[in-house]
Automatic annotation (TrEMBL):
This is DNA-binding GntR family transcriptional regulator. The keyword DNA-binding applies. PROSITE patterns: HTH_GNTR. Gene3D superfamilies: GntR ligand-binding domain-like, Winged helix-like DNA-binding domain superfamily/Winged helix DNA-binding domain.
Amino acid sequence: MSVTDDGVRLSLEQPISRGDRVRDALQEAILNGTLKQGSPLIERDLSARLGVSKTPIREALKQLRSSGLVVANSYQGMSVRTLDAATVRDVSGARAAVEPAAVRMAVERREPGPHPAARRALAEARALLADDRPAQLGLINRRFHRDLYAACGNELMIDFLDKLQGLNAFIATAGWRADATPSDSEWDEHTAILDAFEAGDADQAAGLLRDHIERSAAGVLRSLEPTEPS
């Protein structure tokens, strides 16, 4: 089902009443830029646009606030987060400190060999590169990362990294919009990380992942902090 309000379209695959489906629809709208950074999220308006009651809207907004995509504003309401350099640095710094260690542990806990789930995510990401679907690509890439670090066996590390997933996707899709389109480089880097993971090379997998996190953050920071002309 699709509902249009003032020319802006949000889509739901079927009539729903559950907050998690409303959350997914709002998350996609935020990631693809339909709900723009800094825009207020008014329960009454969202309810009308999605064709659901205020209750699942309220539940979804709470979940999105927990993920970091939505923030409280000065009017005691909620708004889409506005991405800034400090957020990019904080998120990438936290990931660089924890995620490579989790992936290293994951490699060391398994025998070398194929990782079918991660390969499937990689293939889906490749297929999405040619489409104008940044939200879906961002979420598939997050699933790829989770397929690797979730095998570490440390529930505290997994929970910590899971909580960053929404902001990770937000940062990635904002960066792609600034550059006009996702590039093949991220897919190539993911492929190299997975090759090392499947080969059982913990040092290589962790090192490539850390470089990937830092390189991705640097690209987004360049779009947020353009170099002053000399």
